[in-house]
Design brief:
Blueprint lengths: L17 E4 L2 E4 H5 L9 H17 L14 E5 L5 H9 L4 E6 L13 E5 L13 E7 L10 H11 E12 L4 E2 L9 H13 L11 H7 L3 E11 L7 H20 L2 H7 L4 H16 L5 E11 L29
Parallel strand pairs: 3-4, 3-6, 4-5, 6-7
Antiparallel strand pairs: 1-2, 7-10, 8-10, 9-10
Helix pairs in contact: 2-7, 5-9, 7-9
Amino acid sequence: MDDSDLQTVPLDESFLETVAYHDREFQHYAIENGVYFAPVDEDEAEHLRNMHDIFNRMFEHRLIFPPIPQLRRVLECGFGSASWAVEVAERYPDCEVTGIDIFPNMAPEIIPDNLVLQVDDLNRPSTFPSNHFDLVHSRWMAGGINSDGWRNYMADIFRVLRPGGWCQMVEIYFNAQSDNGTLTDNNALRIWSREYIRSLQALKDPRAALQLQNWMRDAGFVEVEAQVLTLPLSGWPSDPRERSIGIANRDNVHRLLTSLALYPFTERLGMSSAEVQLLVARARVEANNPAFKAYFPVYVCIGRKPGGGASSRGHHHHHRSNRGVDSRKRARR
């Protein structure tokens, strides 16, 4: 990549302009440029804050998974509501935390002094210096990174990490599964999943979660570890901890079934707003029904940039759920 090509998009008013579809607010730039198709209004900001809470429950309040003895500089790609970035900045006051997102207005107005939020399109080459960050965090980016942009995105993350620095990625695969196999292709949750994937796949990679491990290795990362967790869509699990996650996730799922689908289903698939709402209503009923044991798979992947001293393999703290991934180790608070 030629450094002369790198330039940060200045924060002009176009990044703040919104456009309404079906009574929800979307970012004009993101829609016009095919970057991101979820709303950016206060409802969505609240949904993203709730989603952060769900992730915190899943990961037992561990914000950072790999072993990093001294955290000095952290980058979050796609900060959204800035919940993760704010929490990291508060927990590590001596660390410089930088967040980057295409839309700044879902973040709180007051943020910690050691947090800087920047506006840019992550499909563009990164403008950060090479060998700079101890950790790059990327979560829920599959709806934003262009389908042909993932390898460049991974290469950029690799470049800006210092030798020995870590990348940590979390992606939900929005393909509803059933823990007991009772969801069929005729069920609304499966129809929703199929249509969501179909609506995006020309521009995005809705199956990106499944590729994180391969992409990370191909980019040059070592000590790559990937795990799959279960995100229950309601309180059906028998395990008390998993059940509490499912119960907390119920309202969150109701919101995302609408917010993720509204624009792509109407504007890209040609469904009417009423058809979308009917499908979402049916999918919500199924998500709530404990008989289906419905969940979304969540893929967690970490990898280290070579160099920077001794390997730290063997000191990782794993998460597991009842689907083979132990997150029962005590959280470091």
